[in-house]
């Protein structure tokens, strides 16, 4: 059964990079035998880059990132340099392979003084050519680089410099061309090395997600590690973990590891008995591991950190969203009493902080556990999207494991985590007794403004509005009404230069205007991350006044008056005892306010709401005759038992009991959009194999890059499969991410006639609009015609250039703002101007009012 292959639920943890000795080497290309550094480079920069504007190609004047062949002295336009011109310059790498971009005529201080630090954000490039003897398999380390192109094929780099992004590639015989792209602030640098390949399958040493072993406890947990296929063939791999006197032997299979791909796969670790400190060396316990494939076998050891009982520790769990292994850290209560229930402080970390570092900033509480989730990665998703979900998944897991009073759960965090507190707390106000953001910024648009993006200058205002509507759901200032029943404590240093006090001051002003409960503590003279004499732990997160505020709060799970506002029903549509099921206009601000006005009466006011539900329980109203007044319309019903009361808007604009039954497609909170929604539940990446040509190669490489993005940014696990391997079981259980149009991908071809956007040769049809020509890229989300309870995401192009271009825009990062569909060409890479962008309406149909369509010049 192929589904078992798809789950590939197998692998292991390592401290050393495990490689497998080669036998039968004639089956694979020869391997790079030793590390190699490139000394001579051409570099150019900086090009102005707007916030989160990675799809812009500033090299378009000389062929673009895909085709350019730089020469010394080649010139480009740049608004960041003196005279508006920059040119490629010769640059030498140092002895460790580090290359500092050579800049001339760039006044960094002047740029920041006039436009703020967003003006320092830029793109820069490095280029080199090197000779290679014979075709070889190799690994590439491109640190601080967002992307690189090897002989015209794009790959991901390691933008944060963590050292674990090793990308498998094939070096061709003769001259190899390499272009490296960097993004960041002010002067940039990168490190590039070609690393040796010692076997067809390698396990990444530096990127293990693993639990700590607690002395005196028998471990039963999960670990995950990236597995790299360094070959151009699909491999089946057998993994065996444990099998000594301390750990059970666990064997799993990875039965479909795509060529030149990376998967971070999970495997269970089960101990036979508790361990004692006398059994370990240097506070680590070694575990045997064996990996094998046909003709190959390797053995090694893995190491787990050990902790004494009662200390802070890190644990893991298997996340159902993508079957990935995620971790969180726990600080147990002081003087733990197994007969008591405790509160829980969920604390979300700042950018670059690990969960164990976050939890260690606190001191033990005798009244609560301290639990620190991960934002998927140290930077991750700004506690939006998948980071937000990971925080909530961690909370759910912690409540299962520990005896927690669910009315005493609190949310706090610092910096990026402070933003996360605003975002998670206001989207899910009914989950917490109180929240406490520290140094939390409000939104991207206020933290690092978007005004330098090309689309802010060139794109149609309507097109800009489309993207703004997606991003608006994560702007805390417009969600403040949701805190009606949620006490808030705000902590801030008055001299914070990273997150200026203007952020919390705006929020507090709004809360006070609403008359909500908020306590603001702006500490004089303190910066971003600060300690204070006499305060144990780290004062900016473990402040005693903040902790006292939290400890005194108890959640009321059934408040008589609730308010909930949202723009994106797919993120969340429910708080306390109300939910919004359907909007009048999708991705627009909707709000419901409900108040119990008597023992058998409720008043409801709604805006942009077509259907909603009241979840009535004992303690809110009494059984019997119930009167509900909605926007002035009186509804009377007999409440025989507690449960759901559904109300909808009639064609006349009034409200009535019941829900509207529809046979056609409809947007629901579970099937809503935008494109990123397909990655919120289990998904697979499917490349096309219909034709043995360049389009098939592009299709496979697009799937590889997306898998690498999911691993690199989301610490995620996903399988890449060919269209020929898609079974009915896969269709039933997974969202399908399709790479290639009907001429490339057989699954796309199978459903093409049932899709709202169709590709036929060089013509793209959407509604009454047709765009034709070469180089057009199409990207959209839609309910799978083969299973309308799951999504498909189609990535297709009118030709090779168009299909390639679908990879320039991805949705796997916070603040992407990508709607339900996009149609674009090279002009988008230049100015950010799309051919079409928008949302499908409530019936999943193309709507003129919900989309932007560029005029076609005839």
Summarize, please.
The protein is α+β, with helices and mostly antiparallel strands. The protein is 16% helix and 37% strand. The chain is built from 17 helices and 51 strands.
What order do the helices and strands come in, and which of them pair?
Layout: H1 2-7, E1 18-19, E2 36-37, E3 40-48, H2 64-67, E4 75-77, E5 85-87, E6 89-92, E7 98-100, H3 108-115, E8 121-132, E9 136-143, E10 147-150, E11 153-156, E12 166-171, E13 174-185, E14 189-195, E15 201-203, E16 213-214, E17 220-229, E18 235-241, E19 250-257, E20 262-270, E21 284-293, E22 296-307, E23 313-319, E24 324-331, E25 342-348, H4 355-359, E26 368-373, H5 386-401, E27 404-414, H6 416-427, E28 434-438, H7 444-447, H8 454-458, H9 461-471, E29 488-493, H10 502-514, E30 518-523, H11 539-542, H12 544-551, E31 561-566, E32 574-575, E33 578-582, E34 590-598, E35 601-607, E36 611-616, E37 624-630, E38 633-639, E39 643-649, E40 655-657, E41 683-687, H13 694-714, E42 720-722, H14 728-733, E43 735-739, H15 746-751, E44 757-760, E45 763-766, E46 769-772, E47 777-784, E48 787-797, H16 800-805, E49 821-824, H17 826-831, E50 836-840, E51 846-853
Parallel strand pairs: 16-22, 25-26, 25-27, 27-28, 28-29, 29-30, 35-37, 41-42, 41-43, 43-48
Antiparallel strand pairs: 1-15, 2-14, 3-6, 3-8, 4-5, 7-14, 8-13, 9-12, 9-14, 10-11, 10-13, 15-17, 17-20, 18-19, 18-21, 21-22, 23-24, 24-26, 31-34, 32-33, 33-36, 34-35, 36-39, 37-38, 39-40, 44-45, 45-46, 47-48, 47-49, 49-50, 50-51
């Amino acid at each position: 059964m192929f589904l078992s292959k798809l789950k590939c639920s197998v692998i292991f943890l390592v401290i050393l990079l495990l490689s497998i000795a080669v036998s039968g080497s004639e089956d694979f290309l020869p391997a790079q035998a030793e590390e190699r550094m490139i000394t001579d480079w051409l570099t150019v920069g900086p090009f102005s880059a707007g916030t989160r504007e990675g799809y812009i190609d500033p090299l378009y004047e000389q062929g673009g990132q895909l085709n350019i062949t730089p020469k010394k002295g080649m010139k480009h336009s740049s608004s960041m340099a003196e005279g508006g011109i920059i040119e490629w310059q010769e640059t030498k790498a140092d002895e460790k392979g580090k290359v500092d971009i050579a800049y001339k005529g760039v006044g960094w201080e002047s740029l920041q003084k006039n436009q703020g630090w967003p003006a320092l954000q830029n793109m820069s490039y490095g280029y080199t050519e090197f000779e290679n003897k014979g075709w070889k398999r190799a690994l590439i380390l491109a640190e601080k680089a967002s992307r690189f192109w090897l002989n015209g094929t794009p790959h991901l780099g390691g933008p944060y410099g963590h050292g674990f992004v090793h990308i498998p590639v094939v070096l061709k015989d003769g001259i190899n061309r390499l272009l490296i792209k960097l993004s960041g602030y002010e002067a940039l640098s990168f490190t590039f090395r070609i690393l040796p390949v010692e076997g067809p399958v390698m396990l990444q040493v530096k990127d293990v997600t693993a639990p700590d072993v607690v002395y005196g406890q028998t471990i039963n947990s999960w670990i995950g590690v990236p597995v790299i296929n360094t070959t151009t063939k699909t491999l089946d791999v057998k993994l065996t973990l444990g099998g000594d006197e301390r750990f059970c032997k666990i064997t799993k299979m990875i039965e479909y590891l795509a060529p030149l791909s990376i998967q971070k796969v999970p495997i269970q670790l089960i101990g036979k008995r508790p361990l004692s400190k006398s059994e370990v060396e240097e506070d680590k316990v070694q575990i045997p591991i064996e990996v094998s494939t046909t003709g190959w076998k390797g053995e090694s050891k893995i190491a787990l950190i050990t902790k004494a009982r009662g200390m802070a520790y890190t644990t893991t769990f298997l996340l159902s969203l993508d079957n990935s292994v995620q971790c969180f850290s726990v600080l147990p209560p002081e003087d733990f009493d197994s007969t008591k229930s405790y509160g829980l402080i969920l604390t979300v970390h700042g950018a670059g902080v690990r969960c164990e570092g976050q939890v260690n900033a606190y001191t033990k509480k005798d009244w609560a556990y301290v639990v620190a989730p991960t934002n998927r990665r140290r930077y991750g998703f700004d506690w939006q999207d998948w980071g937000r979900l990971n925080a909530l998944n961690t909370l759910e897991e912690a409540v299962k494991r520990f005896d927690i009073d669910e009315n005493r759960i609190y949310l706090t965090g610092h910096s990026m985590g402070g933003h996360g507190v605003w975002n998670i707390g206001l989207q899910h106000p009914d989950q917490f007794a109180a929240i406490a953001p520290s140094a939390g910024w409000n939104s991207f648009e206020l933290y690092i403004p978007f005004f330098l993006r090309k689309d802010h200058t060139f794109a149609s205002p309507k097109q800009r509005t489309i993207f703004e509507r997606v991003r608006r759901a994560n702007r805390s200032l417009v969600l403040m009404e949701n805190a009606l029943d949620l006490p808030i404590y705000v902590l801030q240093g008055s001299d914070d230069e990273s997150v200026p006090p203007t952020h919390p001051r705006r929020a507090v002003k709004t809360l006070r205007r609403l008359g909500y409960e908020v306590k603001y503590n702006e500490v004089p003279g303190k910066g971003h991350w600060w300690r204070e004499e006499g305060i144990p732990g780290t004062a900016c997160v473990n402040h005693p006044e903040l902790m006292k505020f939290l400890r005194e709060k108890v959640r009321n799970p059934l408040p008589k008056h609730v308010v909930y506002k949202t723009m994106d029903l797919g993120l969340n549509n429910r708080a306390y005892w109300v939910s919004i099921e359907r909007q009048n206009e999708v991705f627009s601000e909707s709000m419901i306010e409900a108040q119990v006005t008597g023992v058998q009466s409720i008043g409801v006011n709604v805006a942009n709401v077509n259907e909603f539900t009241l979840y009535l329980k004992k303690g809110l109203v009494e059984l019997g005759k119930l009167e509900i007044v909605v926007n002035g319309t009186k509804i009377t019903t007999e409440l025989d038992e507690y449960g759901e009361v559904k109300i909808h808007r009639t064609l006349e604009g009034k409200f009535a009991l019941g829900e509207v039954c529809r046979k056609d497609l409809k947007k629901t909170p579970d099937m809503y959009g935008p494109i990123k929604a397909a990655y919120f539940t289990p998904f697979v990446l499917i490349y096309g194999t219909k034709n043995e040509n360049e389009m098939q190669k592009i299709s496979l490489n697009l799937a590889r890059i997306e898998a690498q993005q999911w691993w690199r940014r989301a610490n995620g696990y996903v399988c890449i499969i060919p269209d020929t391997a898609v079974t009915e079981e896969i269709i039933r259980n997974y969202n399908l991410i399709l790479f290639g149009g009907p001429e490339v991908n057989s699954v796309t071809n199978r459903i093409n006639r049932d899709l709202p956007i169709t590709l036929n040769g060089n013509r793209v049809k959407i509604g009454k609009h047709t765009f034709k020509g070469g180089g057009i890229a199409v990207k959209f989300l839609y309910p799978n015609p083969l299973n309308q309870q799951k999504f498909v995401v189609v990535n297709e192009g009118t030709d090779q250039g168009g299909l390639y271009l679908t990879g320039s825009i991805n949705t796997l990062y916070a603040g992407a703002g990508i709607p339900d569909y996009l149609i674009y060409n090279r002009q988008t890479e230049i100015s950010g101007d799309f051919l079409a962008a928008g949302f499908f309406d409530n019936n999943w149909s193309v709507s003129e009012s919900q989309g932007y369509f560029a005029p076609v010049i005839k």
